[in-house]
Design brief:
The complex is a heterodimer. By secondary structure, chain A is α/β, with parallel strands linked by helices. Chain A contains seven helices and eleven strands. Chain A has a six-stranded mixed β-sheet, with helices on both faces. In chain A, helix 4 runs parallel beside helix 5. The termini of chain A are far apart. Chain B has a single domain, classed as ABC transporter involved in vitamin B12 uptake, BtuC, CATH 1.10.3470.10. Chain B is built from 13 helices and no strands. The chains are: A alpha/beta, B mainly alpha. At the A-B interface, strand 5, helix 2, helix 4 and helix 5 of A face helix 7 and helix 8 of B.
Chain lengths: 261, 287
């Protein structure tokens, strides 16, 4: 079972991969390639193993069987290639640091030994914040920022090392509709300008649909990957979430999904 | 009722007292303790591990009273129990949901054990008081050597792990995703905390430990969100409060622990009230 020659570089390659957690099989038979530069949703019901999949890509849990590679490397081999935005960003220590401190740590936090932050590092951190329209509040404590502002700082922290892939865990979950829209526009910009591969774990696909190319979906204990057009399907989503879901089309040709009571 | 307060009062010869050998030892010892506590305290506050610090201080009690029973140095017993307790809490309490229960249970058992050891030895009740409330004025030259060595260990280790420890303290999920060994750093941190607690118990005691390990750091964080500056302020504040406490104790013949705690608390209160006030005036978050 070899993948057909792809003209594009492969960002994620899964070959009959399976995940086991605390001795329990989570999902298996994941065989797919995600081309570099894709915007991909990771969807599945609660407990289907979305977080496990992300942790596997980051190399935090082992691949139970089969193979997974990230830009041709084993997971965890070169995590500088990945920027990660967790779901609960700086939930507890937000009082102690400013946005700029968090972004600087994204750049230098993995270095051992004592070294002063250089002017060039500081400059790069501010530039990254500015590129994400986050420089206006870079010098404020994280605890004083709104959810949307904090999300920008989190993305700046993930981006400052110059990754090729951005993984976001439920980036829209705690945001109001306006901030959700701004975050999606920001992701679209990063994708457009830098050709980033973007992996988004999400429950609500609707706000992301305009920018998604494909989705990894975890269904019946198996991991699949398909173009977004074929994933946004009444039958598939109804099966996936175990609740009746209808895909609707607006007159403008946009898709959205809704649950049916 | 003048007699009840007979020993407390202004002592005109306080400069001579300050110049005495025991006071010099207290100054040096207090300074070493404050340096370690100021830095480690920053991480305690950021990592929200005040409860672990509190527990370690109690876990030291059976170590100190047990060591006296065996004819060993109380500081040695303190150190062994604190470090062993730190590792125990760290290993048993890996799940966040269980950590408080594990810590609390170990804390209570250790305190009980300390009481039991103390009851076995008739002469050790002064050890018990010293461990509970600290006694800077009883620090010996030998202990100073031990303190200096412990401070060196703490300083060198923090120098090596500074950024990864700070990163995993502030943002552990992202640090882990970057490949930083968050679990190992957590163990390193709690052992450093145990060494610091071992020293701080000697200065301010188990019951007043937070005065050096939590309050100066919390005060510093209220003053500035810059991590390195906050650590410097926290350390400076801890040192200054220990000195002022010792001087005041020479002037008024009151226990230094009490005076140190009082000064630290007063500074914290002023800063905290100002900080809260300034927060209220900041523009409301918007996006």
């Amino acid at each position: 079972m070899s993948a057909p020659e792809s003209p594009r570089e492969v960002a994620l390659s899964f070959r009959d991969a399976s995940a086991v957690r605390d001795g329990r099989a989570i999902w298996s038979e994941g065989t797919f390639d995600v081309p570099a530069g894709s915007v991909v949703a990771v969807i599945g019901a609660n407990g289907s193993g979305k977080t496990t999949l992300v942790q596997m890509i980051l190399g935090l849990i082992p691949v139970a069987s089969g193979e997974v590679s990230v830009f041709g490397n084993s997971p965890g081999e070169d995590n500088d290639l990945i920027g990660y935005v967790p779901q609960h960003y700086a939930a507890t220590a937000g009082e102690a640091v400013r946005g700029i401190d968090a972004v600087l740590l994204g750049l230098t936090g993995h270095r051992w030994g004592f070294a002063r932050t250089t002017a060039a590092q500081r400059e790069l951190a501010y530039q990254t914040l500015a590129a994400l329209d986050a420089d206006g509040f870079a010098d404020r404590r994280l605890s004083t920022l709104s959810g949307g502002q904090r999300q920008r700082v989190a993305i700046a922290e993930a981006m400052v090392g110059g990754p090729r892939m951005l993984i976001l865990d439920e980036p829209l979950a705690a945001l109001d509709i306006g901030s959700q829209r701004e975050t999606v526009l920001l992701l679209a910009k990063l994708h457009r300008e830098l050709g980033l591969t973007i992996i988004v774990v999400a429950h609500d696909l609707n706000p992301l649909l305009p920018i998604l190319n494909s989705a990894i979906y975890l269904l019946d204990g198996h991991a699949h990957h398909a173009p977004i057009g074929s994933v946004v399907d009444d039958e598939l989503l109804t099966h996936l979430y175990g609740a009746p879901i209808q895909v609707a089309h607006t007159p403008q040709g946009e898709l959205y999904m809704r649950s049916v009571l | 009722m003048r007699t009840g307060f007979a020993t407390v009062g202004y002592q005109p010869n306080w400069l001579e007292i300050l110049d005495s050998a025991f006071m010099r030892n207290a100054m040096i010892g207090g300074t070493i303790v404050a340096l370690a506590a100021g830095v480690i305290g920053y991480f305690v506050v950021v990592r929200q591990s005040a409860f672990a610090a509190h527990a370690l201080a109690h876990i030291g009690l059976p170590g100190a009273t047990g060591a006296v029973l065996l004819g060993l140095s109380p500081v040695f017993g303190l150190g062994v129990f604190c470090v062993a307790g730190a590792m125990l809490i760290s290993v048993l309490g890996q799940r966040a949901s269980e950590r408080d229960v594990v810590t609390g249970t170990v804390l209570a058992f250790a305190t009980g054990l300390g009481l039991f050891f103390n009851s076995l030895a008739t002469k050790s009740s002064s050890t018990m008081t010293n461990v509970l409330f600290g006694n800077l004025l009883a620090i010996t030259g030998e202990q100073l050597m031990v303190f200096a060595a412990l401070l060196a260990v703490v300083a060198i280790t923090v120098g090596v792990v500074y950024r990864p420890l700070l990163y995993s303290s502030i943002n552990s999920a992202v640090a882990q995703a970057k490949g930083i060994p968050v679990g190992a750093l957590s163990l390193v941190f709690i052992v450093l905390l145990a060494l610091t607690v071992t020293m701080a118990i000697q200065a301010v005691g188990t019951l007043l430990l937070f005065a050096l390990v939590i309050t100066p750091a919390a005060t510093a964080i209220a003053l500035t969100p810059r991590p390195a500056l906050a650590m410097a302020i926290s350390t400076g504040l801890a040192v200054a409060c220990v000195w002022l406490g010792l001087i005041a104790s020479a002037m008024f013949n009151a226990p230094p622990s009490f005076l140190i705690v009082t000064i630290v608390t007063a500074v914290w209160l002023v800063v905290w009230l100002r900080h809260r006030g300034s927060h209220r005036n900041e523009p409301a978050p918007h996006c």
